[in-house]
């Protein structure tokens, strides 16, 4: 109602200026910033290029799998997790890469990344926050845990969400 907008910036801001403003210590990093304010008028070329990609999200069946990466998981077959996983699909990510891949095994969720974990931590963290908030809102209880998951994959394991 206030007409405010947000964005998160990872590689297109001056870290030096922000680091000085927040008194960043030598042993700290500043991977992203998220300004809040009124949307400006004309977009820069970079903003236009990035903005043109905002509606190009991957399909549900490209991101979520059932038991193995060979079996795509439909929203219908995801059952009580269907909408929670849709919240993950809709989560913002750098240039809409959506680097997460998720396997549902019974009632547990195992999260993987396409690419290096370090490069995708922020995106995956945001997506998993969407999942966590939605499941809590719907009374679906579970917790994130690091597990020794034995699933063959070309993706890199990140974390699991174990149903209580």
What does this structure look like?
One of its GO terms (molecular function) is oxidoreductase activity. Residues 2-133 form the Putative nitroreductase TM1586 domain. Pfam families: TM1586_NiRdase. This is Nitroreductase Nfs. By secondary structure, the protein is of the alpha+beta class. It has 2 domains: 4-41, no CATH class; 60-163, NADH Oxidase (3-Layer(aba) Sandwich), CATH 3.40.109.30. It is built from 5 helices and 7 strands; from the N terminus they run βαβααβαββαββ. The chain has helices spanning 15-21, 45-51, 60-63, 82-90, 117-137, and strands at 4-6, 36-38, 64-66, 100-105, 108-113, 142-145, 156-163. The strands form 2 sheets. It has a 5-stranded mixed sheet with strand order 3-4-5-7-6. It has a two-stranded antiparallel ribbon with strand order 1-2. The longest helix has 21 residues, at 117-137. The chain starts with a strand and ends with a strand.
Give a nutshell description of this structure.
This protein has 164 residues and is an alpha+beta fold. The chain has helices at 15-21, 45-51, 60-63, 82-90, 117-137; strands at 4-6, 36-38, 64-66, 100-105, 108-113, 142-145, 156-163.
Distance between the termini: 38 Å
CATH C-level of the largest domain: Alpha Beta
Briefly note the structural class of the backbone: alpha+beta
Shape: globular
Query: Fraction of residues in helices?
Result: 25-40%
Instruction: Fill in the CATH topology of the largest domain.
Output: NADH Oxidase
Mean pLDDT comes to 89
Radius of gyration: 18 Å
CATH architecture of the largest domain: 3-Layer(aba) Sandwich
Order of H and E elements: EHEHHEHEEHEE
How many distinct beta strands? 7
Tally of discrete structural domains? 2
H/I helix tally: 5
CATH homology-level superfamily of the largest domain: putative nitroreductase (tm1586), domain 2
Oligomer type:
single chain
Strand sequence of the main sheet, in spatial order? 3-4-5-7-6
Percentage of residues in DSSP E strands: 15-25%
Characterize the biggest β-sheet: 5 strands, mixed
